[in-house]
Write a structure and sequence with these properties.
By secondary structure, the protein is α+β, with helices and mostly antiparallel strands. It has two helices and two strands, in the order ββαα. It has helices at residues 23-27, 47-70, and strands at residues 6-9, 12-15.
């Protein structure tokens, strides 16, 4: 028996509660609560629209690279 696991109280020893294994909770103050961030001008974008936008951007970049190397604009 060690005093790390049991703490003395009047009338004997009382088991100590287990330590919190989540170290991230130890980094934050208990009193600090972040205010909700709201952007009334921003509108959420759906997942399909995001995939289409970035897919289109990737396709446009690929086409520009192929045309640039194909026409000799970027000589290697």
């Amino acid at each position: 028996m060690s005093l790390k696991l049991y703490r003395p109280v009047p009338g004997g020893l009382k088991p100590r509660p287990p330590d919190d294994k989540n170290w991230r909770r130890q980094l934050r103050s208990r009193r600090w609560r972040a205010a909700p961030l709201e952007n009334p001008e921003g509108k959420p974008l759906g997942p399909l629209a995001g995939v289409l936008f970035f897919g289109g951007l990737a396709a446009l970049t690929f086409i520009l690279l192929v045309l640039g190397y194909g026409t000799g604009f970027w000589r290697s």
